[in-house]
Amino acid sequence: MRSLRYDGRVHTSLPDFQMPNDEQVHLAAEGFRLLADPTRIKILWALLQGESSVACLAEIVGAAPTAVSQHLAKLRLAGLVRGRREGTFVHYSAADTHVRALLAEALFHADHTDRNLPDHSGPHSHAITP
Q1: How many Cβ atoms are within 10 Å of 123's Cβ, its own excluded?
Q2: Where are the strands (E) in 18-104, listed by range?
Q3: CA-to-CA separations, 20 to 33, 41, 43, 95, 110, in angstroms, rounded
């Protein structure tokens, strides 16, 4: 029987293949790590609907305001959430359209997995839209 060997040059022979740099990989992994919490996903989903305060988010996601505040602090450090101060209040929002796309795609994938839907390619409209 012939043994199969991996040819490491397969990827490097692709004309447009380029590995992300270490910093990009680290930041992406950190973002995914922070999103590995159901409450944080709910918070981000709510923020994709529009700006919100800690108290409002706490009510929406069913968590204590102190817990939501801690989640928001971590999401801010990861660059996933922004805060806008108005007097003594801080209004939070999702950082940018990349957060919207990331979360929508993750939820879309989860929906496909949950309902055992077939994979598809090409342009598609998401059933789950923020």
Answers
A1: 5
A2: 81-86, 89-94
A3: 18, 25, 29, 22, 25
Q: Report the C-alpha gap between 19 and 15 in whole angstroms.
A: 12
- CATH number for the domain spanning 72: value is 1.10.10.10
3-state class of 44 per DSSP?
Answer: helix
Residue 106 in any domain: the answer is yes
pLDDT of residue 47: 96
- Overall size of the chain counted in residues: 130
- CA-derived radius of gyration, the chain: 19
**Residue 14 falls inside a structural domain:** no
pLDDT tens per residue, range 17-41: 888 999 999 988 988 998 999 999 9
Q: Are 71 and 43 in contact (CB under 8 A)?
A: yes
pTM for this structure? 0.76
Please list the helix, strand and coil fractions of the chain in percent, rounded to the nearest 5, in that order.
Answer: 50, 10, 40
The count of structural domains within the chain is 1
| Per-residue pLDDT reduced to its tens digit, 117-128 | 887 765 554 555
